[in-house]
Amino acid sequence: MSKHEHERGVDRTHPKSSGAFSNRDKAPEDWTTGDEPMTGAQASYLKTLSEEAGERFDPNLSKAEASKRIDALQGKTGRGQ
Question: In terms of Cα–Cα distance, which of 46, 36, 48, 80 is closest to 66?
């Protein structure tokens, strides 16, 4: 279970769990719009996380790439736990 699923209380093993098996639980590489440019919200949050982690912000990521980068930087900064 990913950190995001845990935060939302999603239990993929229990079909009656809130949000179980919904589209928002797909892996970013499986998103139909994953290759589109990241959203403004993703860019804003990713820029904040990048600054906190002391890492470079890449404004040219796709939605899927930004989602993966956000997960990685949340782990590094301790945000989202």
Answer: 46
